[in-house]
Design a protein that fits this description.
Blueprint: H1 2-13, H2 19-34, H3 37-40, H4 42-60, H5 64-119, H6 124-149, H7 153-179
Helix pairs in contact: 2-4, 2-5, 4-5, 5-6, 5-7, 6-7
């Protein structure tokens, strides 16, 4: 008799679409997206979205038990994606902050090296590429502050990695120019 009652409750529980669970999954996915999961935990986020789509498809096929399973899976995956995104975003922010500091220091070093080279009577045309690199780096650093405030840390890391490479090359070029023996006038 108990088995019949339990079986009847299970069947009755799956006779309607699991709308509450689907709504919870949708809310969890939206929350994960607002946490940046679509960028910082894309695999888990996409799995949550896919599970929610499968839940809707199961509802369309009137397989409410399957729909419930997919909705619960979507909610759990979205929660995990939000956690992963928070952690990854923190790491990316720290990397971006280190790059800003590093590039600022290198830009200062390049500016000092250019002044020293000018004092050593290096021709202005020889320093033109280094000055251009310095100006570009300073512009990039100013733009970076806007991106940091907007939370676009991945964009900052990508952009400043290239800026750092160019600054290193310019510093090396100015050092090489300064170390050349002076030209003799004839």
């Amino acid at each position: 008799m108990r088995v019949v009652i339990v079986l009847a409750l299970v069947v009755a529980g799956c006779s309607e679409p699991p709308q509450k669970e689907i709504d919870q999954a949708q809310a969890a996915i939206e929350s994960a997206k607002s946490a940046g999961a679509d960028m910082y935990a894309a695999d888990e986020y996409n799995a949550a979205v896919s599970a929610l789509q499968k839940s809707h498809a199961s509802v369309d096929q009137r397989d409410y038990r399957e729909a419930l399973n997919y909705a619960i899976d979507a909610r759990q995956r979205a929660g995990e994606a939000a956690k992963q995104a928070t952690i990854a975003k923190g790491h990316t922010r720290a990397a971006a902050e280190r790059l800003v500091t590093d590039c600022s220091a290198r830009a200062s070093q390049l500016e000092t090296d250019i002044k020293v080279a000018e004092g050593a009577h290096v021709l202005p045309r020889d320093l033109r590429p280094a000055r251009t690199t310095l100006a570009d780096a300073q512009t990039a650093l100013q733009e970076t502050r806007t991106s940091m405030d907007a939370g676009n840390y991945g964009e900052v890391v990508a952009g400043l990695t290239e800026v750092r490479r160019k600054l290193d090359a310019a510093i090396a070029a100015v050092d090489a120019i300064r170390q050349r023996p002076p030209r003799r006038r004839r």
